[in-house]
Every structure is written in structure tokens, then in C-alpha cells.
Amino acid sequence: MSTPVLEARDVSMVFGGLKALKGVTLTLDEGKIVGLIGPNGAGKTTFFNCLTGLYQPTTGQVLLKGKELPGDPAHVTKAGVARTFQNIRLFPSMTVLENVLVGRHSRMKQGPLASLFHGPAYQRGERAARERSRELLAFVGLNNLDDELSRNLPYGDQRRLEIARALATDPAVLLLDEPTAGMNPQETEATQQLIFRIRETGVSVVVIEHDIKFIFGLCDSVSVLVQGELLVEGSPETVRADPRVVEAYLGKPPEEVQHDVEAAAASAEEEQA
Amino acid sequence: MSVLLQQLANGVVQGALIALIALGYTMVYGIIQLINFAHGEVFMVSSYGGLATFTLLPDDLKKSPAVALPLMFVGGIVIAVIVAVIMERFAYRPLRNAPRLAPLITALGVSVFLQEAVRVWYPNAKSNLPYPKVFPEGSLTLGTINVPWTGVLLVVLSVGLSVILQTYVNKSRMGRAMRATAQDPDTAKLMGVNPDRVIVLTFVFGAVLAGVAGIMFGGYLNNINIDMGFQNGIFAFTAAVLGGVGSIRGAVIGAFIIGLIKTLAGQYMPGGTQYDYVWIFVVLILVLVFRPQGLFGEPERVRA
Amino acid sequence: MSTSTVSTPAAAPPVEQRSALAPLGKPFAAVGGVLGIVAALLPWVTFGLKDGNWPDKSTLQFFDAPFAVTGFRWHVLLLGVLILVAAFAPVPSKGRVVRALGWGLAVVSFINGAYITVKGGGLGAITALDGDVAFGSIVGLVGGVLAILAGYGIGIELPGQWKVKLSTPVAYLVLLVSFAAVLYAVAAMLTTGGVGTSNPYAGAIFLSFLGFAGGVLAALSGVGFIRWLSVLSEEHRVFSVIVLAACALLLPFTEAGNEYWMTVAANIGIYAATAIGLNIVVGLAGLLDLGYVAFMGIGALVAANFSGAATAHFGITLPFPVAAVIAGVVAGIFGAIVGSPTLRVRGDYLAIVTLAFGEIFTRSAQNDIGGITNGSNAIPGIPPLSLFGAEFNKSFSIGAVKLPAGVLYYILIVLLVAATMAVFANLKFSRIGRAWIAIREDEDAARAMGIQTGKKKILAFLIGATLAGLAGAVFAHKNGTVSYESFKFMESVTLLAAVILGGMGSIPGAVLGAALLFVLPEKLREFEEYRLMIFGLALIVIMRFRPQGLIPDRHRRAELADEDVGGVPVDEVHEVPKEAKA
């Protein structure tokens, strides 16, 4: 068996007296999409923050292609792990193109002097970065919006721009934190297709999502996180069949449980039909 | 040895003064996360307000300290409160949801404006003004240590008022509303707390304490000048940071530490009193760099 | 401009309630405009003032009395006509434009009326007293107020957005014309009302001109022209800097070409260069620096000590370019040191660290630390610069044309400002500049994009401080004396005010801000006393009403002003996730 591209071993995170993560282990094989689900407050985003170096795990380690990741977000990104945020965090008053160019930052070489004098080599690097950024914008479906301020984009486009910006860092692993939150069914469908296409380019993906139907239709494997612990892990079928998963979701507000259960049932019916 | 003891005593008196100002910084920061740069000027304005009150008194009242002094306190505090309330209402409140840089710059503007307004409009404010001799004279002598009664009064007022404030914030209904607003303004609002009232009240408390400090400053040092607000404001801010911004107890303890550093550095460090100011800033920078949460604050957590 | 498509966003919600005023919008604008024109033609004064007849003295040289309507009255006339045009022509963001012009009219009328009243000894001077009728200022004021109300009635919409793309030669032409107009306006601003002391009405005339210029600029900004022009000049930034520098170099040949204004302009230039450096730190990287002038002081001290002045600490005299480079490097090193707490300290606290550093500098310099500052005696007698035997503070002639004294300093400083602008512009539109802006916008997201935020922030401090150090070196030679008094906290505040007033992150803004803040005191000698008070008030008012500054940066604009915001509010974008809070 080959080395997994991303591996979290026994990651724990303690804030003061609060144990946000208790020994979570996750394995992502190359070219796969892994889903991470769980009720609110289960520690999903905290786990992401541990993976990307924003938090230092209290114990445990994170490995990228068998090598331990450095404990700093900038270096983690450079090593090849990119992310999006649960609440979109674009650079609101930069243009669409500039947002993606910021993503290219760690793949560009220009230092302060080159930036000061804009010599020929600088110009070449800048042109290449712009070209790559436009490609990525086209890839996620944002054409002809280069000079728009990112804050002026509709919600769905902002999510896609965030993905383009993350892809601009040339990641081996892309971490998506609720990429379809607030989207309508068509947009959700388009996002699913986009994630498949991202996988085709050789990037492995981890997705956090509340929309269980979306996760089951998308992922090769699903992990369920409850109260900071890994409850179940396996193929979508295994996870859906597991009674503990439904039970765990009963810790949530009634409407949401009902919604999730209905959604899961609906998707199950769909597949049987 | 006697020099050291005397300097320690001086440091405690300075600390008491700084503490009264520092409380205003720390409370406002605790509630709306604003470094109210202009708070030092509120202190300065109150000092001039007290002096103006005295000047306006009829001659026979000027000669009776028992009447003049309380009236000066009233005058100084009233002016300080008015200034603080106007400043909160018209300069800070409209910016409550603005990016953080905006209110900080506004605070800078308010500070410059107040200082200049006094310099230009208060008669003869360009030079040091002597403070009326209505304070208790003489001094307390303990062995070799000599502390003017004004200094003693300053320490008593400072400690007393901070204890009262601490009790009020911990025990009273309004104090609870203050703490709730500091923790989470939105939830506090849902619970029926009017954040505007709480914030104004915070400014008022800060102004009252600064007002007391302003009058006592004049009494202790015998004259006042328009730079007093900026300098002591910075000291007080340093004290608030040292103690952990938002913590009342921290601000008071921080203030005494700063007072001691100032007098001791002035006595024992190279450069003497010419550099005492510099040492305080060095301490400020070190604290901000190595323990930004202060001695009694909680560490800030990274958000994501 | 063939492909001109002028559009205002359709979904722009009216900010003000329009119900009461809505039907009155256009009628009010019409009446306001007509009143403006009438006011210009009415007499303004009933009798001669002590210092001479008011309207005679109120001429601007370039509005020299055609149709017997002179000076400010020309401005009033023009504003009246513009209000009428704006009200009835298809103008984008009509309400905003009419309101701006109305303010211009009201301010011009009020200032002139107020001065006449004060100088003429009472309200009699502007009303019908000795048989004459002189309601000019009142009519003008009423017209202005009506136009402002009309603006609200029509509705305040987002400023127009121009999507015009120009071919390069046309763009160059537009920029050339615009910058020439800017030069003209600057020369007018400097010379309007003459040199402070010689004309008793100088202050009034100058303020009145500012009111007019402000109204017209605000109207242009409302139409969307200013934004469009600033985007255009950023696209062609090399050309822009060259043209601006060329225009500035022509200033000695205009009416402002005398020793007095060369000196003032050179001083403005030094502060403008420093302000641009500060703009890197504050405007781009979003780090508030309250002790910035200390770096200028360090540069000045270094240059002074190597200048060969009698009280210089080092026995060596270095040629100016070498000393200037050392000044820049030393200031830069200090900048990096002061900036290094950014690795651990965030936001407001960093501002306090910089303030503390500034104070440490002032105190140390005051006490002659290490014997290099000469304490409160300052370092006097720094020799003026010279090049090929031409001393920079003497007058200078090219062929038959004799240029005023100080012109060489002026030229040197224009080149310094141009270089600083180029540095700023190149950095802003580079990998580094984008990283700074990203840090300013959202530091955690920037780190997640692979930006090493600590290093980049220190770099901002380093570069900003280096520029200030260079400006300080020039300052030392130009002024001949270096004293710690020139580098106190208030100077830092003034520079910050210049950056904020002009517009954070914007280069023309920093120059304009510095120009206004340093010309105003020259012009308003009678208000000298109130200078700092007005700064303080200005900071408060700007933050309240126009936090993006006079010439906002395209990036900054949306961020600081709610009025211009479309799409998702900043707070929502930046909302802290529940999980991280818990």
C-alpha cells in the first residue's frame, strides 16, 4: 500500500479545560475525496485548523506524503495543503484576480528588490502568475470578472473564488470547509461537479459538510466526528447504515435532525430507485 | 536606604494617581475594545475645570478650603463627565461598527482637539498654572519618609474608589450588565441590557475617576499644564496593559508598579529623571511583546 | 471616448429617506441653481471695507473680471450653472452631484458673507443698510442650501462607475490633460490670495477657493470621474509619475515661481515623501504607526552628523548621496526593530508600541543621547547642498530665465517625491504589495495563502522607515538645523492626518493630504493658533463622514465607507466562527 497523501495521527486539541479533539485519526489516499461530518461543535473546523497549522495540536501529528507538516499556516500551504473557510474569508476589497494572485504568493519568487524594480524576470513571473490565475478562474467558472471587487460578487461566486484562490497555491490536498453552505440545489450540484473535476487534476480533497446527501454523493470515504471523537469511518454506505450516526445526530436541535434524516432517507431512496 | 524608602513612598503616590486614570482606560477597553486615547485629556480637562471653578468662586469662599475644595471637585468632575459623554456620543458611537483603525484615529483626533482647545481658550494655559492652595498642607512623617498630606489623600481616594468600583461592577445590577456587555454585546442586548446606556455609564465612571485624579494632581504638584494629560494618559495606559486590559484589579496593581518604576528608575537608572519616561515605555514594549494579555489577563486565542 | 458606458448600479438603495423631499428634488435644484446665478450678479457689499472694497480684492488671477463679475463671484456663477446642468442633464448619481455642488455654493457664499460681515462691522455689510441692496451672500447661501436639499430629494445613490477602456495614446492624453489641470489647480491654490501677510483677505479668498474646488471635486467624484481617473493612472502608473513630476517641475515657471512658494512647496514635498512612506505601513499593510516621524528624525540626525556642521558628532564629512543612503539604511534598521513586535503583537497594541518608540526617540534626542543630537541646542549650521558649485538655496538661472532661490531644492524634492511614488506604486502592484493588502484585509486568510505575515509586516516597516530616513536627510540640509522639536508626536499625528485625509493607500491622496495640511497654515495665518485643533477636529470629522479620504484608493474605498458598499458587509465576511470562539 502506498503512503497516504495526508495522514492525521491521533490528533488531540485542548483549549483550557475543553477537549475539542480527542485522538482523531484520518487518512486521505491520493486522488480521493474524504468527507467529514458531524453535529455542530463536533470539532470539525478545529480539526481543519490543526491540519493547516493554524492551531498546534496538543498531541498527535499531521503528515503530508509521510513527512510531518510544519506548525505554521504559511509553511503548511507551501508544503501543499490549501483550505477554504467556513465563513468565506476572501480579501473583500481586492479584485477577483488579485485574490487568486495572492494564492499564487508562495509559488512566486519575486523578492522585495524585484518587486521594487519590475525587471524583465519579474514581468515574466507576474505574467505567468496572471495567466495561471485566469486559468483557475475559468476552471471554477468565473470568467470576465477579473476587475470586480470580490466583495461585490454574489455568494455562490464568492465560494467558487475561494476555491480558485486555494487551488492557486498548487496544493496536493485541498480542505473545503462547508463549500455548499447557503447554496441552492443547482449551485450545490455545480459545486459537486467542480470538486470531481478538482480531483481529476490530481488534487485530493477533504470536505466538511452538513448536507449529508451531498457528502454521500461525493465522497469515497466518510468520517463522522462527534464531540471531538471519531465515531465511524468508512464508505458512504457503511456510514449511512451505522445506527450510531443517526443517534449521534440526535444531539442536535430537532428541526436539523429531522432535516438531515429526511435528506439521508431521500438520497437512499433515490439510489434504490 | 532612606532614599529608597522615600522613593518607594513617592512611587506609591504616583501609582495612586495613575491608577485613577488607568481605570478609565481599562473599563472602556473592556467594554468596547477601544483604546480611548483621549482619556488622558479628560483627566487634564478636569484639572482645568477645577481651577476654573475656583477662579469663579467669590473671594470669601476662596479663602475657605472646606467649601472651595469640594466645589472644585464637583466642578472638575462635572466638566470631565460632560466631555466624556459628548465624546462618546458624537465621536465614538457612530463608529461602533467601523473597522478598528477608525475609532483609534478618532480617539487621537479627540485627544489633540481637547489639548489644543484648552491651550487656546483657557486663559494663560500656555504656561504652567499654579493650583490654589486649598488642599491640606504639611506632610505625614514616618521615620525618614515624608509624604505630603495631599499624597496620602490621593492614595486613600485611589484605593477607596477602586474598591468601590470593583464592588459595584461585581455586585450591582448595572455592574452585571457591564460585565455581560463586555463578554458578548449581542447576547447582552437580547437579555434586555441597553448597550448604549452601559457604554455611556462606563465613560462616566472613567471620567469621574479621572476628574478626582485631575484635582488631586493639581493639589499634589501645585501646578498644572496642558501636557499632563498626554503624559499621564500614557502612563495609565501602560498600567492598564501591564495589569491586563479589562481587569480593574490589574489596572490598579499595574499603576502602582508603573509609579514605582518611574520613581526608582529616576533615582537609580543611568540618566536619572530625564529618562524615567523612557523606562516606562521600555516596560510597556516588553510587556506588549512578551505578555500582551498583561499580568492578570487571559491569553488571546487565534481565530479561524 | 467612443465606447463610453456610464452606469450606476441598479440595485443601489437610497441611503437617505426620500419621501418628504422627493417631489421637490428637481424644482429645488432649479431654484438653487438660478439663485446661484442671481447671487453672482447681485452686489455683495453695501460699502467699502476698511482695507478696500471687498469684491475688487477677491479676484483670482485666472478669473480676471470678465463681465464685471469678479473672483469668487465667478465661482458662484459657475456653481449655479453646474447645478442647473446637473439637475436636468442625464448625469449619473444625480443627487450626489447636486448635493456636492450645493455644498460648494453654500460654503463659498457663507465664507464670503461671513468675512464681509466681520470685516465690515456687522450684518449691515451684507444687507440693505445705506440705501443699497447687497443680498448676494444670503441669496447664494439660500441657493446652496436648496441645492443640498434637492440632492437628498433626488436621492443619494452610489457614485457612478465608468467602465470605459481607453487605448494607450488616448489614456495618455487624458492623463496629461488631467495632470496639467491638477498643476494649474495647485498653482492657483498656492497663489490664491497671495502670500499670507500681504493681503488682509488672503485667508478668506483661499478658503472660498477651497470651497469651490471641493464642491467641484466632490461633484466629479460623484459622477465617477475621479475613481475612473485613479484607476486609469494606476494602470499607466509609470507614465503618470513621469507626467506628474514633469508638471511639478514646471511649477517654478508659473505664478508660484518665487522664493517663498518654492520654499513652501519644497517643505510640502518633504512631508509628502514621508507621508507616502507612512502610507506603505498604514495604507497598504494596515499597521497604525504613531511614531513614524522618528524615522525621519533618525535620517535627519544621521545626515546632520555627517554634514560637517560645527556641532556634528562624527569628525567625517561625507558627500550628501552617501550620507543620505546611510540615513536611509539606519532608519530602515530602526524600522525593522520597531516593527519586529508585530510578530507577537496585534492591531491596536502595535500602534502603542510605535507610539512608545516615538516617545523614546524624542526623549533620548532631547537629552542628547550618545552626544549625537546635541539635545535642545539642536545641530545648527548644516551646509546647504551644492552641485557643480551651484548652492541649492541660491537663485539659479538657465540662460536668460532666472529661477527663484530655492528652486534647486524644489527640483531635488520633486525628484524625491517622484521616486517615492514610483517605489510605492511598484510595490503596491507586486507580489509583496498584494501580500500587504491581504494581511490588512484578513491576516489569518493571508497566512493560509502561504504568506509569512510577520516577515512581510517587518518589511513594510523597514521600507517605510527607509523612505522617511531619506526624506529626513534632505530635510536636514534644506532646513540647515536639526532639532528633536521637529520630530515630536504631533508631527506623527500630522503625517497620519495627511495620509488619512488624502486617502489611505492612495498616492495622489498622500500628496494632496500633505499639501493641504502644510499649505493651510501658510494661508491661514490668522488661524495659526488653531492649526492643531483643526487637525484634531478634522481627524474626527473625516473618520465620521469620509473615512476613505479625499482621493480614496480603489481597494480602501469599499472597506471603510458603508455608503459605497455593495454585496456582503465586512462584518459578515469576517464573522468569527462559533467553534473558534467557544
From TrEMBL, chain A:
<protein>
    <submittedName>
        <fullName>ABC transporter ATP-binding protein</fullName>
    </submittedName>
</protein>
<keyword id="KW-0067">ATP-binding</keyword>
<dbReference type="InterPro" id="IPR027417">
    <property type="entry name" value="P-loop_NTPase"/>
</dbReference>
<dbReference type="InterPro" id="IPR051120">
    <property type="entry name" value="ABC_AA/LPS_Transport"/>
</dbReference>
<dbReference type="GO" id="GO:0005524">
    <property type="term" value="F:ATP binding"/>
</dbReference>
<dbReference type="InterPro" id="IPR003439">
    <property type="entry name" value="ABC_transporter-like_ATP-bd"/>
</dbReference>
<dbReference type="InterPro" id="IPR032823">
    <property type="entry name" value="BCA_ABC_TP_C"/>
</dbReference>
<dbReference type="Pfam" id="PF12399">
    <property type="entry name" value="BCA_ABC_TP_C"/>
</dbReference>
<keyword id="KW-0813">Transport</keyword>
<dbReference type="Pfam" id="PF00005">
    <property type="entry name" value="ABC_tran"/>
</dbReference>
<feature type="domain" description="ABC transporter">
    <location>
        <begin position="6"/>
        <end position="252"/>
    </location>
</feature>
<keyword id="KW-0547">Nucleotide-binding</keyword>
<dbReference type="InterPro" id="IPR003593">
    <property type="entry name" value="AAA+_ATPase"/>
</dbReference>
TrEMBL record, chain B:
<feature type="transmembrane region" description="Helical">
    <location>
        <begin position="233"/>
        <end position="265"/>
    </location>
</feature>
<feature type="transmembrane region" description="Helical">
    <location>
        <begin position="198"/>
        <end position="221"/>
    </location>
</feature>
<dbReference type="InterPro" id="IPR001851">
    <property type="entry name" value="ABC_transp_permease"/>
</dbReference>
<keyword id="KW-1003">Cell membrane</keyword>
<dbReference type="InterPro" id="IPR052157">
    <property type="entry name" value="BCAA_transport_permease"/>
</dbReference>
<protein>
    <submittedName>
        <fullName>Branched-chain amino acid ABC transporter permease</fullName>
    </submittedName>
</protein>
<feature type="transmembrane region" description="Helical">
    <location>
        <begin position="149"/>
        <end position="169"/>
    </location>
</feature>
<comment type="similarity">
    <text>Belongs to the binding-protein-dependent transport system permease family. LivHM subfamily.</text>
</comment>
<keyword id="KW-0472">Membrane</keyword>
<keyword id="KW-0813">Transport</keyword>
<keyword id="KW-0029">Amino-acid transport</keyword>
<dbReference type="Pfam" id="PF02653">
    <property type="entry name" value="BPD_transp_2"/>
</dbReference>
<keyword id="KW-0997">Cell inner membrane</keyword>
<dbReference type="InterPro" id="IPR037294">
    <property type="entry name" value="ABC_BtuC-like"/>
</dbReference>
<feature type="transmembrane region" description="Helical">
    <location>
        <begin position="277"/>
        <end position="296"/>
    </location>
</feature>
Automatic annotation (TrEMBL), chain C:
<feature type="transmembrane region" description="Helical">
    <location>
        <begin position="458"/>
        <end position="476"/>
    </location>
</feature>
<feature type="transmembrane region" description="Helical">
    <location>
        <begin position="28"/>
        <end position="47"/>
    </location>
</feature>
<feature type="transmembrane region" description="Helical">
    <location>
        <begin position="138"/>
        <end position="158"/>
    </location>
</feature>
<feature type="transmembrane region" description="Helical">
    <location>
        <begin position="407"/>
        <end position="427"/>
    </location>
</feature>
<keyword id="KW-1133">Transmembrane helix</keyword>
<dbReference type="InterPro" id="IPR043428">
    <property type="entry name" value="LivM-like"/>
</dbReference>
<keyword id="KW-0812">Transmembrane</keyword>
<keyword id="KW-0472">Membrane</keyword>
<keyword id="KW-1003">Cell membrane</keyword>
<feature type="transmembrane region" description="Helical">
    <location>
        <begin position="170"/>
        <end position="190"/>
    </location>
</feature>
<feature type="transmembrane region" description="Helical">
    <location>
        <begin position="67"/>
        <end position="88"/>
    </location>
</feature>
<feature type="transmembrane region" description="Helical">
    <location>
        <begin position="238"/>
        <end position="254"/>
    </location>
</feature>
<feature type="transmembrane region" description="Helical">
    <location>
        <begin position="496"/>
        <end position="518"/>
    </location>
</feature>
<protein>
    <recommendedName>
        <fullName>Branched-chain amino acid transport system permease protein</fullName>
    </recommendedName>
</protein>
<feature type="transmembrane region" description="Helical">
    <location>
        <begin position="260"/>
        <end position="285"/>
    </location>
</feature>
